Amino acid sequence: MGKPLSKVKFNAQYKAAVARGKRALASGQYAKAAWYDPTTERLMLTLSNHALVGIPVAGIAYLKNATPAQLKAVELTPTGSGVSWRALAVDLGVPGLLADTFGSQALAHGMGRLGGQVKSSAKAKAARANGAKGGRPRKRVAA
Fold first, then answer.
1. What is the tens place of the pLDDT at every residue in 68-113?
2. What is the pTM assigned to this prediction?
3. How far apart are CA 64 and CA 71, in angstroms?
4. First CA to last CA across the chain, in angstroms?
5. Where do the domains of the chain lie?
6. Residue 10 above 80 pLDDT?
7. What secondary structure, in 3-state letters, does the chain show?
8. What CATH fold (topology level) applies to the domain 28-111?
9. Does 85 or 4 have the greater pLDDT score?
């Protein structure tokens, strides 16, 4: 076992971990609620970014032979990072379900868009400096 962290290092690591957690929640890759809708035969997820997603269970191989009663027993993990069906011994990650449903490229695009919305003093300072130079450079047209 290594030597314990100093209070300063611990606080810095804790603060960084909290910031990563907040960014992850804002990305919408975590669920706040999960349930099975027998009418549409979909696993419904309310995501951490307040989006509502319905995933057809027919497309989830692990749930192929499950009955509606078994599907209704879906549970959300405490962190919201996964869904579980104890009776079926099936545990699935929310990010993986979203990537399989929407494609990892679309998911990455959405996360990148969220990252671009982040406001920081460094970003504001860079924007002011760029504005003082006349703004964004014009694209050059090849002759």
1. 999 999 999 988 989 999 999 999 999 889 888 877 665 556 556 5
2. 0.61
3. 10
4. 65
5. 28-111
6. yes
7. CCCCCCHHHHHHHHHHHHHHHHHHHHCCCCEEEEEEECCCCEEEEEECCCCEEEEEHHHCHHHCCCCHHHHHCCEECCCCCEEEEHHHCEEEEHHHHHHHHHCHHHHHHHHHHHHHCCCCHHHHHHHHHHHHCCCCCCCCCCC
8. NE0471 N-terminal domain-like (3.30.2020)
9. 85
